[in-house]
Amino acid sequence: MKQVQLIANARTTLKKNEMNRLRDQTWIPAVLYGQGASNVNLQIQEKVLQQAIHTPAGLNVLVKLNIEGASEAQEETVMIKSLQRHPVTSKVLHVDLVRISMDKPLETTVPIMLTGTAPGIKEGGNLEQVHRDLAIRCLPALLPEQLTVDVSALAIGDAVTVKQLRETLPAGIEILVDEHEPIVHVVAPRLEEEKPAEAAAVPGVAGAAVAAAPAAEPEVIGEKEREQRRLEREKEKDQKK
Q1: Which residues are bridge partners to 80 per DSSP?
Q2: Per-residue confidence band for 13, with pLDDT thresholds at 50, 70 and 90
Q3: Coil, strand, or helix at residue 234?
Q4: Alpha-carbon dihedral of residues 58, 7, 79, 182, nearest 10 degrees?
Q5: Closest Cα to residue 41, out of 81, 69, 79?
Q6: Taking the model in full, what pTM does it have?
Q7: Are 184 and 151 in contact (CB under 8 A)?
């Protein structure tokens, strides 16, 4: 992987209000640590830092760090361990840099890029990406910017597994995920099954069912009908006398 140059200055300010003042002057506080050496407090120009991290490698970029203002000139090979950002503006507030050795393997995560068009999509299937990045181990010089997965041969039901991807990588790059794990696959479309209307069982008949009968509506009696029934009741009383 290509290395980028990054210039930093030694930092003596440690208090919160002093570091806020640095940020107002477009400096980003940083700290360098690792490889058993002492921690070094740094400050980096925001523009310089943005140029370093906005590469295809993202935070996995290898950095040749030059420290100015120290008692003696320092040059370190480092990686960006983490960025602390403002929760609202996303502006970088602090940077952690870690020393690396070019002859010792390192572990990190690398993003996955899909290429090609899966035939299974044209058949009505859905392409699902299970992993968007993978943990790997390799020497810094072998660190890829991304892992490329070709999906142009995937029909419905097919997948690309970690094992298949591993076979396409250069020697010396180890994927730290189970080889049987799918990275991406094409699945059949999910059809919504219609539930049959519930039926009421017929008492006394095993296995038989009929649709539940609608509830009986109350009988509506008009004025004329009520008068007719009253006359009939009076007539019945007269006959009994």
Answers
A1: 97
A2: confident
A3: helix
A4: 10
A5: 69
A6: 0.69
A7: yes
